Amino acid sequence: xxxxxxxxxxxxxxxxxxxxxxxxxxxxxxxxxxxxxxxxxxxxxxxxxxxxxxxxxxxxxxxxxxxxxxxxxxxxxxxxxxxxxxxxxxxxxxxxxxxxxxxxxxxxxxxxxxxxxxxxxxxxxxxxxxxxxxxxxxxxxxxxxxxxxxxxxxxxxxxxxxxxxxxxxxxxxxxxxxxxxxxxxxxxxxxxxxxxxxxxxxxxxxxxxxxxxxxxxxxxxxxxxxxxxxxxxxxxxxxxxxxxxx
Length: 246
Ligand code: IPE
Ligand code: IPE
Ligand code: MG
Prior knowledge:
- By secondary structure, the protein is of the alpha/beta class.
- It has one domain: Decaprenyl diphosphate synthase-like (Undecaprenyl pyrophosphate synthetase, 3-Layer(aba) Sandwich), CATH 3.40.1180.10.
- The protein is 41% helix and 14% strand.
- It is built from eight helices and six strands, in the order E-H-H-E-H-E-H-E-H-H-E-E-H-H.
- The chain has a six-stranded parallel beta sheet, with helices on both faces.
- Strand 3 (95-99), helix 4 (107-119) and strand 4 (127-134) form a beta-alpha-beta unit.
- It is globular and about 50 Å long.
- Residues 13-15, 57-60, 63, 187, 189, 191 line the site of one 3-methylbut-3-enyl trihydrogen diphosphate.
């Protein structure tokens, strides 16, 4: 795969854990636990493929609406996984960041998140962004608030995309916008994931439920991505003639 055929940033909605468990008459939480194994495979696969940044949607700002026992089960799963996986991330030179409003989490979980981020801060390989209590609308509002705080005298009419973009949660981390969006579980929707950042991402949907998604499925998504012609508003001819879209 040439460099332009390979996505630099992959963003994934890991959906279908609950249905996977239900089909096996298992509690939903077991589906989430199996989902962690799928996440590990995709992290490894992306890192080996030379992807610079992988963003995994782990918990949306709307997922608080779920039954209490599922929410608390997910919170303890996050704690366990952070404890268990930190060493592996360091071994693979992967730097971890959380995006989303972490203040809603328990003080223990917030501390664990910060500690794990700090432990991997020296890693120079792939960036792994975990979107937790994340919402695309929240991200945009938060960015506008941060801009206005930094520029209290700003004239609203001078506000541009370039004013707001640097304050988005992903921009702060200096990662490119997602090139490839993958959603498992058969639903063809964004569910308030990276609304702004996905503007020109290639969208890839698969019926596979997340716990069953593996390295081959990731490769299939990469192959599909490599066939797409990204036009960014231009004509196909302009792209084949090599016009620079930047
Ligand atoms: C995605 O799987 C994981 C989270 C939202 C935390 P789901 O739990 O949404 O699985 P389904 O969609 O019910 O099958
Ligand atoms: C999106 O999945 C959120 C995560 C995968 C974390 P959902 O299962 O919450 O999305 P909807 O409710 O089907 O749109
Ligand atoms: Mg779901």
